[in-house]
Specification:
heterodimer, A: alpha+beta, N-terminal domain of TfIIb, 4 strands, about 20% strand, B: about 450 residues, alpha/beta, VC0802-like, Rossmann fold, 2 domains, seven-stranded mixed beta sheet, 16 strands, about 25% strand, elongated, binds S-adenosylmethionine, binds zinc ion, Trm112p-domain-containing protein (chain A), Trm112-like (chain A), Trm112 (chain A), DNA_methylase_N6_adenine_CS (chain B), tRNA processing (chain B)
Chain lengths: ~120, ~450
């Protein structure tokens, strides 16, 4: 499954697609919610890696509006709990991800996105 | 520091010191190692605290037990002198501590009568406590170590003709070895012919220093053998493979998720992705605490990368363009691949790891090597600035072997995403032009490692 934590780390990598190639847009998704262990230290350490706007937009795209549009300056437990839920507990099982720039479609099946490039897409 | 007697399992002897070093580093304590590396099971190692010995015994796969070191000698006279010198360690148990005392040998069986004699010879310790076999407060062990004489029928070992004898107080029995059975590949819900055996996967996991909250990546995920032990130690794992079928298998849900579920680790498998390591979609670097992987070396699972061996013909290109234009998507698209030579792959893996690892992070991977040809510079030749080898342990299969290499990202700066060499040129070899012996490993393997012109 794709979770938003990994989705936030992946950009379109087709040949020549270097700008506006992130975040990939979800389409026709099937979502499951599954519990994950809460590890506040991990989340604090991971926070600097997150592209905040991309995370919030993608969460909204799949129907979760719990995150604030602006990343809060105060990192308290409540905030970490909602961050935990959005990053780790929403699982996209089926559907696809589309590049906002070149429109390449990365299909997701059985929870595994196919991000192989076609011959004309490799540099 | 105080001495502790480590009793190691008799397998993978080159792996045991790197393993305890990794776990000591994980918990942030230091070790004092002997100058000479031994191959036998007994090694005396210095530790600052008894608790450190317990931590190691709970986590190290190759550690069978740890004793507080009370004495050692090549004769019993030497052993007793050494034990007397450590009186302050065993003195506190003299009065009323219940105890058990056993005498045993490695590579030999000591006759009962002599075992009794050996115990009696320790009577100067004057222990007054009760002898208690089931739940003693104190366990003492005396170990004779004999040379390995397997296959030497004539030179049967003579009783008492040991190389060294050791004596000490049991601190902790190793409990991590039981994980080898827990992760037994044959009992796993999903595995394949590329799966790594449980013991080796666990050793690899320990080289990564996996712990709760670490983020670990396998770019050649296959059936995910190393993901389970690393996740077991608390890490969150991401895997990718050029061939999705390796991670998926035939049933639903995907094989790696099924196996992870069996172990209760599904929530720690963060995600699986199908892509070519050299054409990867990572948005940024400095992400992972470790990368652990068994790269394809072409014997069982071919090493491939996207592209073609030779430029496609004009006719082929035309057919291809038509197909694209028609927008037919009923068939899953399978892009062409070309072979990926091992020494190229190894260099690319190090480069990619330097980009993706956090500073201080580790790359842990297997490199197959040809026994007669291997030189240490082979490994040096695949490094790049900011990446240093910190462990290199051989598993020997005779004419070939594989080395578990641990490389640390010593650089504290970030690196741009690597540009891989996509042509099959060798300009990267640099001015020295050293050709590592693992180059064209697959061809050498199928030729039975015969040397050219010989
Ligand atoms: C030796 S197997 C790894 C086995 C794995 N450790 C397991 O437990 O099954 C190597 C894997 O690398 C994959 N592979 C080969 N070339 C690749 C590439 N260029 N990028 C990503 N994966 C690749 C193969 O599909 C294969 O699954
Ligand atoms: Zn794109």
């Amino acid at each position: 499954m794709v979770r938003l934590i990994t989705h936030n780390l992946l950009a379109c990598h087709a040949k020549g697609c270097n700008a506006n190639n992130f975040p990939l847009q979800f389409k026709d998704v099937e979502i499951e919610i599954r519990e994950a262990e809460f590890n506040p230290d991990f989340l604090r350490g991971f926070l600097p890696k997150i592209e905040w706007k991309a995370l919030v937009d993608s969460a909204r795209q799949i129907g979760d509006t719990s995150l604030p549009a602006e990343q809060p300056e105060m990192v308290d437990d409540d905030f970490l709990k909602s961050l935990h839920h959005v990053l780790l507990e929403l699982h996209i099982e089926e559907g696809s991800m589309t590049c906002p720039n070149c429109s390449h479609v990365y299909p997701i099946s059985n929870g595994i996105p196919n991000m192989l490039l076609a011959e004309h897409e490799i540099a | 520091m105080r001495g502790y007697l480590f009793v190691f399992a008799q397998s993978h002897s080159e792996f045991r010191i790197p393993e305890i070093q990794s776990i000591a580093e994980l918990y942030g304590f230091s070790l004092q190692l002997p100058e000479l590396e031994s191959v036998g099971p007994f090694v005396v190692i210095g530790l600052e605290k008894e608790d450190h010995a317990r931590l190691l015994a709970k986590r190290c796969i190759l550690l069978k037990s740890v004793y507080e070191f009370w004495g050692q000698g090549s004769t019993y006279e030497e052993l007793h002198n050494s034990t007397r010198a450590h009186k302050s360690l065993w003195d506190p148990y003299q009065q009323d501590t219940s105890f058990r005392f056993f005498v045993t040998a490695y590579n030999h069986t000591i006759p009962q009568s002599r075992q009794r004699q050996i115990m009696e010879d320790f009577s100067y310790m004057a222990y007054l406590g009760k002898i208690e076999l089931k739940q003693p407060e104190l366990v003492m062990g005396c170990f004779e170590e004999y040379d390995d004489t397997r296959g030497l029928a004539k030179n049967r070992v003579k009783d008492g003709n040991f190389r060294q004898v050791y004596f000490g107080r049991l601190i902790e029995e190793g409990s991590a070895r039981a994980l080898i059975g827990h992760f037994d590949v044959k009992k796993r819900a999903y595995y394949g012919n590329t799966s790594m055996d449980a013991e080796m996967s666990l050793l690899m996991a320990n080289q990564t220093k996996a712990a709760p909250g670490s983020l670990i990546y396998d770019p050649f995920m296959g059936t995910g053998s190393m993901a389970y032990p690393t996740a077991h130690f608390g890490a969150l794992v991401i895997g990718s493979d050029i061939d999705g079928r390796q991670m998926r298998g035939k049933e639903k849900p995907a094989g790696v998720f099924r196996a992870a579920t069996q172990y209760g680790l599904a929530s720690r498998i963060l995600g699986l992705f199908t892509f070519d390591m050299t054409r990867n979609p990572w948005r940024c670097g400095d992400l992972f605490d470790a990368i652990v992987t068994d790269p394809p070396y072409g014997v069982r699972a071919g090493a491939k990368r996207l592209g073609r061996k030779t430029e496609p013909s004009e006719k082929h290109k035309e057919v291809y363009r038509e197909r694209l234009a028609s927008g037919r998507t009923d068939q899953p698209y399978i892009p062409p691949t070309k072979p990926y030579e091992l020494s190229d792959l190894a260099r690319d893996l190090v480069l990619l790891s330097r980009y993706l690892l956090k500073p201080g992070g580790r790359l842990v991977f297997f490199l197959p090597t040809v026994t007669d040809e291997y030189e240490d510079v082979d490994i040096q030749s695949m490094l790049c600035e900011g990446m240093e080898v910190i462990a290199n342990s051989l598993q020997d299969f005779g004419s070939w072997g594989r080395r578990l290499v641990t490389i640390k990202k010593t650089a504290t700066t970030s690196f741009p995403p690597p540009v891989f060499n996509t042509n099959d040129d060798t300009s990267w070899l640099g001015p020295s032009g050293h050709v590592p012996a693992h180059k064209d490993f697959r061809e050498k393997y199928f030729q039975g490692f015969r040397k050219e012109n010989s």
